[in-house]
UniProtKB/TrEMBL annotation:
<dbReference type="InterPro" id="IPR022025">
    <property type="entry name" value="Amidoligase_2"/>
</dbReference>
<protein>
    <recommendedName>
        <fullName>Amidoligase enzyme</fullName>
    </recommendedName>
</protein>
<feature type="region of interest" description="Disordered">
    <location>
        <begin position="1"/>
        <end position="41"/>
    </location>
</feature>
<feature type="compositionally biased region" description="Basic residues">
    <location>
        <begin position="24"/>
        <end position="40"/>
    </location>
</feature>
<dbReference type="Pfam" id="PF12224">
    <property type="entry name" value="Amidoligase_2"/>
</dbReference>
Amino acid sequence: MPHYTYAVPEPAHHRTRLNEPQAHHHPAGVNAHHHRRKERQRVEAPDFRFCVELGLVIRSRKRNHKTVAGLEDEISSQLTRAGIANHVPSGPTSPVSSREWSVASELCIPSRPRDHHFGMKLVSPFFRFSKRAEAWQSDLRAVFRTLNSHFELTTTHQCFTHIHITPETGFWQLDQAKGLAKSALYFERCLDALVPPYRRKSVWAKSNRNNRYFAGMSMAECFGQVDAQTTFAGLGMRMNLCSALSPTGAALGAKPGNDFVHDAYRWSFVGLTEGGGYGTVEFRQPPGSTSAAEVSAWVMLVGCLARLSCGAGGGLKPDHKPQLKSLGEWLVYEAEWCSIPHKTLLKDLLRQAVPVTPAPGTMAGMDADAITIDEDQRLRWKANDRKVALEKYRRLLKHVRAL
């Protein structure tokens, strides 16, 4: 998945990429047997800013909290003692910061107050992906060192690691968003192999490829529909269209025939529907993470995939079957190009892939046929939940515009 368009020569101060992985397809006009000799330098991809949402079940090691508010305060206090800037957005209008961690309860994760376990969400500041990679990795290590020292961290099927990304300019170009959308559709089965089975059929991370709009289309037809979009709202609708007859539609009381846009897909483009390219794209499929190493690996995957998808060119062939091995080579190579520290974490994530083998008579990637009563209720609760990451993005945008 290289950047196949090399129309602009690389400036002299940029590094030359050596030992480039063998591409399966070559750009038009380049002889496959002599492509290294004739190849021109790549056009640099955009850098990204990102934040992560960590959904976990947390219990204090020293205190038996009876309410989630007490646990929020203790987490915040311990992070502050460790020198980690943070806040608790305690009310619907309390401010959030794009430069601090936010500590809040999480409605989609069941709590067990009698056992002093609560579903919690920690939302990071916005970081620079490649330009300050050591900074965000160091910050993640400090946060998890503090959490694991003072709290018990466990995960359930509802726990998550969500990653929000936006170009460093603070807004998207439509072609960038389209490039990422096509990668999300094309590589869905590959990325499914990296997550536990329960995250392949989660109501909180539904399939974009098999959503209400794209289900039944060939990949070439999907690409054609993405390319035909002239607005971010149109792109978001196609990537995140949910059937009124689906379990999610039934839970939210959608009337038959009134299909709707919903954010609980593997890739959520709903944040871009406000217009003008402002907002984030969110990767929601990874399971809960209890270590900085796990989160770092997922961030590397998303950041590198976004750069490969949004740089000049593309090169995806909808009539060819995607291969995780080839994708992995390009992701690792992009991480090397960006000088991201600790690339072995990304390699380890790719190595533990388990191919998706659907049950007889079923189609890989299809969502679960039904959801639990608890999930039904939590979908309704989440519909009115506060979007902390989106609020952080809006604060970030004010800072970016002021520069």
